[in-house]
Amino acid sequence: MQPTATISRLKAAGAPPRLSGFAQWADRHFKWLLVAPAVLLILALSVYPLLFSLVVSFINYDFQVPGHAFVGLKNFERVVFDPVARWSLWLTAWLSGISVAIEFVLGLLVALTMVRSFPGRGVIMSILIVPLFISPVIVGQAWTLLLQRPFGPTNYILTQLLGQEVTIGWMTESPWLYFSLIIADVWQWTPFMFVILLAGLTAIPPNLYEAAELDGVNAWQAFWAITLPHLAPMMLLALTFRLLDAIRMFDTIFIMTGGGPGTRTYTASYYLYTVGFTQFHLSQATAGSWLFLIFTALVVMLLVRRLLKTEPV
Amino acid sequence: MAAVAPVRRPKRRSIPVGRILLLGFFLVFVLWPLYWMFNTSIKPSDDYLTVPPVWFPTAPTLVHYEAALFAYRGLDGLINSLIISLSATVLSALFGTLMAYSLARYNTGGQHLSFWVLSQRFLPPIGIVLPVFLIYRGVGLYDTHIGLIIAYTVFTLPVSVWMMFAYFRGMPKSMEEAALVDGCTRWEAFWRVAVPLAAPGIVAAAVFAFIACWTEFFFALILTSRSAFTLPTVFRAFIGFQGAQYGEAAALAIVSLVPSIALGVLAQRHLVRGLTLGAVRG
């Protein structure tokens, strides 16, 4: 290290580095000065807005109604008694639940096929992670191109495969549009599960399997006795991270269904967005987002507490 | 992935048909939407609605790219996205590294401070974006580059801080301690000794911050409109289209996914750390 060397030379010459008053002060408070920019930014753009929104949720802040009168819990009432709000929370829960479950199983299966080395593994790896680097908006767009009638080739392919005319409105007909939203999410985020679970799988010492094989344990038993317990902390981590992102689901809905038909595909985020930015009931939307925040915090406490107990790494 | 070294286990004799089929199926599943999007982007509009569909365009054309970039202002979005993502990435990597070093070496604020930063990662954006929108309108940051740069810096900070936090904790302290003993100030020990050693980690954190900014939609949708709009928000123009703009949407998608995929694949060694905020060493 060059500067160190310079300073030691200075020292040897009997000239200890002298610091100005400011530099001394800065050196003493060094650790706090380092965290200051990040902390101040988060305070300004996350904590302050949250407090501000808490205020907004108790007053009238509506572009259609003048003035900012204190209205108590009225904004919260509006959300709680709105059937669309309750539907959107319910939809968010099961849509993210199903998506994450499929991603988990599929990701685990693919990870298991990739544990051993084989020719072409590196290239396949690079291809499989590609969806992680694509904007969800584009993912929604890509699946729209595939599914939307009459342009998308999906109905044609199904017609050929099944031998009978298939004319499904993938973005408009009731069970199918959920399927479309789930498949877009699964396409994008299965690699997430896969990458984390693969890291977990490769960390399991291979001699455990060798020992098991010597003891005459078959592959299925080895999976239950060795793989699963060793992988459990990673599984919990992957599920936690993924679930906390899945409940924010917004972008693909915005592009693929626009919440429609009617309000059938309103997720919590989409509902709050429309209340705030197309109906301009801003105080109702902030009240709703606080309720959603509390709901998320409960999920976080449940999952992250567990996670910290198991402590992967 | 290079970092996750393949484990060699005693080979079994049979050919793993099930595995090959599963992997093959999944590869097709991943590649098919990308191929179809590319195919659509170079297909003449006349080929859109043919039965059977045109699987391989015989007369590829670039008209959709031209329309997407100019008529739909895709190029403006691209430039805005570059300015905003690059600026936010630099700020996030810089402030993230500063904070992470302090947390890792001086245990600043104990566990509380680091977990407070982590908790920001799990806040639903809808809870933040509504009040930020109101504040931005009040202070004139709405629909400005600076406004979105600040928002993106804050929104990528938890990941930058935690990735670098894990990186510094995994780095031996001895070099910095030697520098301090030699009479360096703490700042010199950090800036001239620790930062150069941590450079690969900083680059990786920056790459993930860039990808997060480049692909972000929700903040951009709400905090910008006509002047600071980013590339993902340009796709609003294609919603509910009736056939006329398939090619344009696909072309714009291809243009915008190239940079982030290229960076992501280059940084794939650090992917596990990036996805788990440093919790798992890939």
UniProtKB/TrEMBL annotation, chain A:
Pfam families (alphabetical): BPD_transp_1 (PF00528)
CDD domains reported for this sequence: TM_PBP2
Gene3D superfamilies linked to this entry: MetI-like
UniProt-listed InterPro entries: MetI-like, MetI-like_sf
Subcellular compartments: Cell membrane
Transmembrane segments: 32-59, 87-111, 123-146, 191-209, 221-241, 285-304
Residue ranges occupied by any ABC transmembrane type-1 domain in the UniProt entry: 89-303
Similarity section: Belongs to the binding-protein-dependent transport system permease family.
Stated name of the protein: ABC transmembrane type-1 domain-containing protein
UniProtKB/TrEMBL annotation, chain B:
UniProt-listed Pfam families: BPD_transp_1
Signal peptide (residue range): none
Ranges annotated as spanning the membrane: 20-38, 78-101, 122-139, 145-168, 189-211, 217-239, 246-267
Keywords: Cell membrane, Membrane, Transmembrane, Transmembrane helix, Transport
CDD domains for this protein: TM_PBP2 (cd06261)
InterPro entries assigned: BP-dep_ABC_trans_perm (IPR050901), MetI-like (IPR000515), MetI-like_sf (IPR035906)
Entry keyword annotation includes Zinc: no
Domain ABC transmembrane type-1, chain residue ranges per copy: 78-267
GO cellular component: plasma membrane
Compartment(s): Cell membrane
Keyword Cell membrane: yes
PROSITE patterns in the cross-refs: ABC_TM1
Membrane topology: Multi-pass membrane protein
Family label: Belongs to the binding-protein-dependent transport system permease family.
Protein name: Binding-protein-dependent transport systems inner membrane component
